[in-house]
Amino acid sequence: MGSEKYDKLAIVTGANGGVGFGICQRLLESEGKDLTLVMACRNPARANKAREALLNQFPFANIDIELVDVGCTKSVLSFSTAIKRRYSHVNYLFCNAGILSSSGINWKTLFYLVFTDPVGLMERADVTVQPVGEINAEGMGKVFAANAFGHYVMIRELENLLSKSGDGRVIWTSSITACSSSFSIDDWQGIKSQEPYESSKWACDMIAIASSERFQRENNPITSFTTSPGVVASDIGGLPAWICTARIFIHYFMRLCGVSSQNVTAYNGAIAEVYAALEPLSRLSFLNRYNSLSNRWGKAFVGAKSIVDYDRVTAEKLIEKCELAYQAFKKKNADSTFTTAPTN
């Protein structure tokens, strides 16, 4: 189903579950049948199941599925080629899919934080033991590739379509755990980091802001925003089911105590992402991170927080490294396609 029949087109990576599914729900509520929604997912069975659930809730919806693994550059390039062939423009690109690798729980830290910083315990991943040195099949830091680089490649590939919309929005799903102290430009892929997830999310923040600054310099009608879904009860990190279940009750309890980051549901967690997509540009600033929040009774709202630690020099160095890697992967993919193409 092509986009020419409809006014707007949105792409949501990781759309089959979690915050990605919540983004889809909120978009369809707001934009209705004037929107074509592209669910960019890795698993076809899960994608189709999620699409059916959305159609049951929104029978009028125009929903397409395109398969992509954002942690694989070759897959992202193939996905982008399919999008460019099928659609004439892109209004919203939600860079949402991501991973948090885990090899277990640091129980000592957990019990310490229970008594010293219970809010931090429920907001951050301090007790999650993250593997160090993970590399994907393409030789890139695994978490960085999925959370940041794959989306950078997608943006670069779809930049013309975003521009054609006249008001292209790129919305990154970052995290309240994103922290400048977790990131080093000398380890920009987070391979040596003890906190590759936090490092990758800070990279998302920097890429989002630096990209908006470039679009602004080039008078390109695209704006890139960074957002946080707050704390959502999900299975990211691959923790045991009993831990995930126990956390849900704690999230609700802390929200009743007034901790507004405890959104719990993906629907509440998605409010900031959709806010950054639909609000007039005059009411937004790409120097802020827009955070999904909930009051103690579960009513969701959006809070803006300036990213005070943003360093333009470091961000531009990161963009340069991403761009060089992108061009290298693109050339390698083109050469591979050419050498393996059938001949007459």
Your description of this structure?
With 344 residues, the chain is an alpha/beta fold. It has a single domain, classed as Rossmann fold, CATH 3.40.50. 47% of the residues lie in helices and 16% in strands. An 8-stranded mixed beta sheet has the order 3-2-1-4-5-6-9-10, sandwiched between helices. Strands 7-8 form a two-stranded parallel sheet. Helix 2 links the parallel strand 2 and strand 3. The longest helix has 29 residues. The protein is globular and about 55 Å long. One of its GO terms (cellular component) is mitochondrial outer membrane. Belongs to the short-chain dehydrogenases/reductases (SDR) family. ERG27 subfamily. Keywords: Lipid biosynthesis, Lipid metabolism, NADP, Oxidoreductase, Steroid biosynthesis. One of its GO terms (biological process) is steroid biosynthetic process.
Low-pLDDT residue spans: 340-344
The largest beta-sheet arranges its strands as: 3-2-1-4-5-6-9-10
- Tell me the radius of gyration: 19 Å
Give the overall pLDDT as a whole number. 91
Query: Structural class from helices and strands?
Result: alpha/beta
Distance between the termini: 32 Å
Which geometry do the CA atoms define?
Answer: globular
Helix share, percent:
40-55%
- Major sheet description: 8 strands, mixed
Tally of strands: 10
Count of separate DSSP helical elements: 11
CATH topology: Rossmann fold
CATH-scheme architecture: 3-Layer(aba) Sandwich
Domains, number? 1
